[in-house]
Structures
1.
Amino acid sequence: MSYRKINIWTRLDWTTLIIYFVLIIAGWFSIYAATYDLENKSMVDLSGRAGMQMIWILTSLAIGFSLLMIESNWYEIFASWIYLIIIILLVITIFVAPDIKGSRSWLVMGPVRLQPAEFAKFATALMIAKVMSVYKFDIMNFRNMTLMLGLIGLPIVLILLQKETGSALVFMAFFFVLYREGMPGGILFAGFAAVLFFVLAIRFDTMWGLTPVGHFLVLSIIVLCIFGLLYSSRKRNENVKFLLYACLGVIALAGIVSLFVPFNLVWVALGFIMVASGYLFFLFFKYRTTAYLWIVVFAVLSVGFLYSIDYVFDRVLEPHQKIRIEVALGIVDDPSGAGYNVNQSKIAIGSGGFFGKGYLNGTQTKLKYVPEQDTDFIFCTIGEERGFIGTITVLILFAVLILHLILMAERQHSAFNRIYGYAVACILFFHFLVNIGMVIGIMPVIGIPLPFFSYGGSSLWAFTILLFIFLRLDASRSDRL
């Protein structure tokens, strides 16, 4: 494989680059607005947050320019070494990092603080792109699937040991990349089902007579999933439709009977899951079709997961994580405690109205009602000062950037470039979705930054590296011979 010399500036994707510039400049102005006070009026005063963000922006541009000057094939050649170095840094961080706000995730070197977890995202993206771009790589091969889970899972475990749950969850975005490269959709379906089951079990942790409502709802959905998967399989038959209608009828009848003769409806749903699983085993041995067996596995694991939720929620999660989930799900109303950040954030965004209060005129942000308003909650500053127009503009910019990155990934001529491009798009999408979600109160507060907006050198450097490596790969996509 050889490479031709190219003029990098004529081949750069300027749409992505322009959106990047707009976002980092808008982020800089937002940070200044969030931290503005009458005694510190200068945006370039290095003693203020805006002044320091200017330094991070300038150094990010220098880093981005340097990355564009590197030969594109080097990223694939040295992907393993980059991944290994970052993993070593993550291990070191566990033992030497000071405790900052309950986590040990920052390496402090004099005036500079770095968070290796941020850089682990692009390192992992490079590594999985290198491994999956090997000729005839098959994600369905058990060994390959195990390898990919290990590469993604290792930084997750190390970051969790640093008590940085939010940063660890970001790595789940890589499963969308695996799906694009051939991972069965059933795995993503199982992941979404697990989230749904967790939310329902926690949100509806009440009793209706002798029936725990949350458990009954989840078990009923499992029954529907079993019959839905079975009916959609290639070996479906009319018996499946009959069993589905019979199942729903008996559950409805049991619900009516329980009004007069109280009993636990959970046992009815569990009984149907057992009967359905037995029927699927019969179909498996009759037709030798593994799809039936996988449906049974899904049912068994789902029931096991359901009955482990209470243990995980009560024994595994930290108290602050539990209360944040309860606030997000509306179980607990704690506007002066755990829900304070989100409550003030929603007040700030709502007070902005359609056009906003005007730049530097936000009362919620100026009076410091919103904690972390220049980092994790930077979006509320935009909402208060720029209103609906400002927030929708930011949303559109991110949507255009992410969709454009996906189109760029699809036009790549090599698997390495394509996989890495999808990884970039998925990481940005996850950050964008979760950050906006937690600021407006529809997701738990897990403390991840809004790309290119939130204050901080580590996050801005990491997102810049992530994006500019792909810009360099894209510029040379037609030069591999």
Note: DSSP finds 20 helices and four strands in the chain.
2.
Amino acid sequence: MTQNNSDVIFVGNKPPMSYVLAIITSLSAGNLKEITLKARGQAITTAVDAAEITRNRFIKDLKVSKIAIGTVEMPPREGETKSRMVSTMEITLTKK
């Protein structure tokens, strides 16, 4: 855990409920008030789903305090020559 009272969850290709569980666990385990979901490319939709499910169904006093979007350059895949640009998103959720 970092000292600025926040935790980071990297969103990949698991179902959204896995990340919802991770968010709830992280927030209830310690004295965390803030959690950040980081996602790239196709995982962005999963991150948004997880954040919304958590807010609407489980932790009603959870607010989206910050959303940061960006792009990162990824190295070329096997058999490709050009590197590609991939969208990134960070969703910061804060508990009141």
Note: Residues 6-95 form a domain with the Translation Initiation Factor IF3 fold (CATH 3.30.110.20).
